[in-house]
Amino acid sequence: MRLKKMKAITLLLSAVLTVGLIAGCGGKQESDKVTIRMIESLTSPKRTELIQAMLDKFQEDNPKIKVELISPPFDQADNKIRTMLGSKEEIDILEVRDLNVAEFVNNGYIEPLNAYTDKWSDFATVSAVSKSVGTVGGKLYFLPNGLYQRQMFYRADWFKELGLNPPTTWEELYETAKKLTDPSKNRFGFSFRGGAGSNGTTDSMILAYNGDKVNLEDSMFTKDGATIYSTPEAKAAMELYLKLYKDASPPDSINWGFQEQVQAFTSGVTGILLQDPDVIQSLQEKMEEGTWATAPLQTGPTGKALFAAGGAGWGMSSKSKHKEEAWKLIEYLSSPEVNTKFSKDYGLIPLHTTATEDEYFKTGPYKTLIDMSDKPDTFVNYKPAFEYPGNGQWGQVAMETGQALLLNKATLDETLKKWDSYWTEQKASLKQ
Amino acid sequence: MNNRKIILTGLIPALLLVLVFTYYPFLRGIIMAFQEYKLFNLSHVHFIGIDNFKNAFQDPKFIMALQNSAYWVFCSLILQFLFGLTLALMLKKKFRGRGIYQGLVFYSWALSGFLIGMIWKWMFNSQIGVINDLLLRFGFIQERIGFLSEQKWAMMSVIIANVWYGVAFFAIMLLAALQSVPSELYEAAEMDGAGGVRRLWNITLPYIKPTIISTLMLRAIWIFNDPSLIYGLTNGGPAGSTHILSSLMLEHIIYGGDYGAASAIGIIMIVILLLYTIFFLSVTKAEKAGEF
C-alpha cells in the first residue's frame, strides 16, 4: 500500500517536473489581445528606458496590442537574436543592424517592408541615407531608428592655447596632432584606436585617399574592380596612418577600443577624437562646456571625404504571425514625431529629413553633421560592404594585421597585400 | 514490489536534462567540426571532411594560441596554487576577525571573469591606469609601460590578472582541507621535536594531498577552458599575441560566425584535456594519495 502510494507520487512528481521543464519557459497567451514580441540589439539601460516609454505610449493608444520588449545585454544581443531566429522562436519585430542585415536576408529571417511603406504617408520624408542603410538587393528590410555618422571632436581650449585651427585634411590632422603632443605631460594629439574597431580609421583614410576612384556602391573596390587596398593612394594613406600613431598618439592605444579612446579624450590625455554622435552625451556630462567642439571629417588629397552613415532599426520577422500589428508598431516608432524625439534623447541623426529643420539640430554638436550633409560633393556617402559574408570578420582581421604592422612585425606592403587578397577572396566567394 | 521501475521513472527528468543539455550539444559540436557551418549561409551547410582541422593547424594564430595556452595554464596554475597555499596556511590560525578577513580575501572568486578583465584593463592602461601611475610616483619606472600594448608584457599581464582571480579558489579549498588535519598529529610531532618546516612537509602536505591533486587537476581544466578574462582584457591583442585556444574559438564564433572552425578547435581542446587528464592521473596515482 505504502509502496503504491509512493510510486504514484514519484510518477506524478517526475511527470510534473518533466512537463514543467519542457513547457515552463513558454509565455502565456491572452485571448483578446495580440502580443507582439520585440527584441532590441544596441541595448543600454538608458536606451531601453526610452524605448519602453515609447512602447507604453503605443500600448495606451492601441489597447488591443500588447508589446513585450526583450533587451539582452549588448554584448550578447546579436547572438541572442540570431539564435531566436534560427530556432524559429516567435519574434515579431527585431532590431536589425547595418552589419547583419545581409546575413538575416540571406537566411530568410526578415520580411521586406516595401509593401507596407508604399501605403505609409510619412515615407516620403525618410532620408535617402536611411533608406540606403536599410536596403539589401533593392528591397527595404528595416527602418533605422537613428543614424550614426562620424565627425571630429577636438579640445577647443588646447587649440586656442596653441593658436591652431581644426584640421580639414588628414595631412593637417597629422600636423595638428603632432603639435599637440607632449609625452612628458602625458598629452597626445590623437585619440588613436588600434584595438576593436581600428578599421574605422584605416578604412576611412584609405577611402578618402582613393577619393573618386572608389566604387561607392561596392566600397571595398575601385571603379576598375581592384580592391581599394591595392592602389598607391592606399599606401600613401597608410604611411600617414603609421606616422599618426608613432608621432601623435599614446603608444598604449595600439590595443584601445571604443571605451579607452573616448575615455582618453574626456580625461584630458588626447586632443582629437573621431567618433559618432552617441558620444556627445558623455562628453557633455564629463567635460566642461567650451573645452571641446566639433568639426567635419577630414578629406583626402583629392578634397573628398567618404563617409558611411551607420545604423540599426526596426525590421519584421518573416515568421511573424501578426504582421499587420507589427507594422503598426514600426510605423509608430518611425513616425517623424516619435523618431525625432528618440534621436534627440539618445543622440542620433533622425530618420526624417524634416527633422533637421528642428532648432535643436541646427546648433551645438549636431550642426557639423548637418553641415556635412549640405556639402554632398565633399562629403560623399558610400555603402559599406555589408553584403559580404566576410565583412563581420574584417574588423578582427584588420585589427590583428594592423597591430602587427604598428609593432613592426610586418611591413606596410605585406599588410596591404593581405588586405587586398582578403577582399579579392571575398569578391570571388560572392560570385559563386 | 517493483522498485526498479520507480527508480527509473524518478531518474527520467535528470537523464533528460543531461541528454538534452550536455550530450546533444557535444554530439552536435563533433558533427559541426566536419561541416562548413557558417552563420552567414545557413542554407548551405555541408560536410567538408577534415578541412576545418587542416585550416586550424595551418593558421599561425592557432599555433600561437596553442603555445600561449600551455604557458597560460602552467604559469597561472603554479602561481595560483603557491599563493593560495600560503594564504590558506596563514588563515589556518585563529585570530580576531578571521571570518571577515576570509570574506575579503575570497571575494574575487565571486566576480565574473569578464568583469575582472574589464577592471584590470583599466588598471593596466598606460595613460590613465593606476598601476603605471603608482610605479611612476614611487619612482620605479621613468616611462610608462604599455602592459597590454607591448607583446613582451601582454601575456604576463593577463596571467597576473588570472592569478589574482584564482588564488581565492585554492585558498578556500586548501583551507577546508587544512582544517580537517587532526591536531593530535601536530602535537605528537611536536613532542618528537619536529620543526615547522618538517611538520608542513611530513604532516600537512601528505594529509591534504588528495585535495591538492583534485584541485590542481580541476583548476587546470578551468583555466584552459575559460576565455572570459582574456576576452575582457585584451580580446587576444595586440596582434593575436594573447590568444589562447578558447578565446580563439570564441573569436571564430563572434566575429566570423564560423561554427565549423570553432567546433574543430573545441574538439582539439577536448583531446588535449583528455591526454592531460590521463597523464596527470597516472602520474599522481603512483603513490596512493592520503596514506602515510
Report what the structure shows.
The complex is a heterodimer of chains A (432) and B (292). Chain A is an alpha/beta fold and 432 residues long. Helix content of chain A is 46%, strand content 14%. Chain A has helices at 2-23, 45-61, 74-86, 101-106, 114-117, 128-133, 156-161, 170-180, 199-210, 232-248, 258-266, 280-286, 323-333, 336-346, 359-362, 367-374, 391-406, 412-431, and strands at 34-39, 65-70, 93-97, 110-111, 135-136, 139-140, 142-148, 151-155, 188-190, 270-275, 292-295, 305-307, 310-317, 379-381. In chain A, strand 1, helix 2 (45-61) and strand 2 form a beta-alpha-beta unit. In chain A, helix 9 packs across helix 10. Chain B has 292 residues and is an all-alpha fold. Helix content of chain B is 72%, strand content 1%. Chain B has helices at residues 3-33, 51-58, 60-92, 98-106, 113-124, 130-137, 151-178, 183-191, 196-207, 209-225, 228-233, 245-254, 259-285, and strands at 35-36, 46-47. Chain B has a two-stranded antiparallel sheet with strand order 1-2. In chain B, helix 3 (60-92) runs antiparallel to helix 10 (209-225) and helix 12 packs antiparallel against helix 13.
Q: Which features would summarize this protein structure in a list?
A:
heterodimer; A: 432 residues; alpha/beta; 6-stranded mixed sheet; 4-stranded mixed sheet; 18 helices; 14 strands; 46% helix; 14% strand; globular; B: 292 residues; mainly alpha; two-stranded antiparallel sheet; 13 helices; 2 strands
